[in-house]
Amino acid sequence: METQNLYETIFKRKSVRNYDITPLDENTLKDISNHLNNLEPLHDDIKIELKIISESDVNRRFMKKVPHYIAVFSENKEGYLTNVGFMLQQMDLLLSANGIGTCWQGIPKPKKEVLKSSNLEYIIVIAFGNPNEPLYRTSLSEFKRKPLDEMSKVQGAEEIVEAARLAPSATNSQAWFFAGDAKIIHVYALKPGFIRKLVAKKYIPIDVGIALYHLKLAAEHFGKKPQIIVDETAPDSSKQGYEYIASLELL
Ligand SMILES: Cc1cc2nc3c(=O)[nH]c(=O)nc-3n(C[C@H](O)[C@H](O)[C@H](O)COP(=O)(O)O)c2cc1C
Question: Which residue among 60, 91, 104, 144 has the greatest number of ligand 1 atoms within 8 angstroms of its CB, and so is best to mutate?
Fold first, then answer.
C-alpha cells in the first residue's frame, strides 16, 4: 500500500457503511497487518494490540455486514484512548488512500472469544473492505462540520487546524477546541456532561486523538517538524466546558 497522499485524503475521505462482503485477498490483508504493526504511537509506553477479525467474530448490532474489522485493545493508562485515536486514524487514512473503505464503529462488539483473546482492554473496532458506495467525497461542502471559528481561535496556523476540523468523530460530535498561534496549537476536549458520561464518554478522547493526527499530518505537509507535548502550564481555553489535552509545537 502507498503511504503517500495521506494529507490529501483528509479532504475527501468519508465513513463507508456499505461494503462488498467478499474478503480482501491474502496479500492485501498481510500488507494491512504489516502496517498495523508499524503505526506511530502518541504515547509509546502504552501497550496496544490490533487484530484483524472477520464478520463472524462480531455482533454487528444494527450495523450492516462488513468483510473485516480491526479490533483494538489497549492497556488502560493515562492518555490511552487519545493514543488509540491517534494511531488508528493513520490506518483510516492509509486504507482510504489505497481504495479501501473504512468506518470507526463503536456500536458492534466482538464476540466473547475475541474479547478473551487479549489481556488488554477492548476499545473499538474499525470496519474495512471494498466499498459498495463512493469511497470519496467530491467536494468540501459534503463534509458536515462546524465552521472553523466555532472550534478554534488559533491565529496564524488556520490551514493546519482546517485538517483537524474535517476529522471524523463519534456521532460527528466534533467535541474539540483549538487555541494558539503559528508556533504552538493547544488542543482541548469537551468535558462530557452527565448523559454523555454515561453513554459515550470513551469516544471524546478517541476523537481528539484522531484530530491530533490530522493536525500533525497537516503541519508536516506545510513543512513543519511538529512535536506533540503535554504541557501542564498550557493556557486555559477561553471556551467554557473544555479541558486541556495536548499541544502541537510547530518547529
Ligand atoms: C470513535 C468513533 C466511533 C464511531 N462509531 C460509529 C458507529 O458505531 N457506527 C457508525 O455508523 N459510524 C460510527 N462512526 C463514524 C462517525 O459517525 C463519522 O465519522 C462522522 O459522522 C463523520 O462522518 P465522516 O466520517 O463520513 O466524515 C464513529 C466514528 C468515530 C470517530
Answer: 104
Give the integer Cα–Cα distance in Å for 238 and 219: 24
Q: Looking at the CA of residue 167, tell me the nearest atom of ligand 1.
A: 27
pTM over 0.85: yes
Establish whether residue 92 lines the binding site of ligand 1, counting it when its CB lies within 6 angstroms of any ligand atom. no
Asked if 13 and 213 touch (Cβ cutoff 8 Å), the reply is: no
In the sheet where 121-129 sits, what is the strand order? 48-54, 68-74, 121-129, 101-105
Instruction: Give the up-direction half-sphere exposure of residue 210: CA atoms within 13 A in the CB hemisphere.
Output: 25
Q: Which atom of ligand 1 is nearest to the CA of 169?
A: 31
pLDDT score for 195:
82
To test the pocket of ligand 1, the residue of 105, 136, 143 to mutate (highest count of ligand atoms within 8 Å of its CB) is: 105
Would you say how long the chain is, in residues? 251
Amino acid identity, position 225: K
Residue 172 backbone dihedrals phi, psi, to 5 degrees: 55, 35
Question: Which residues, given as ranges, of the chain have pLDDT below 70?
Answer: 238
pLDDT on residue 52: 98
Backbone angles phi, psi at 135, to 5 degrees: -75, -30
The single-letter DSSP state of residue 143 is S
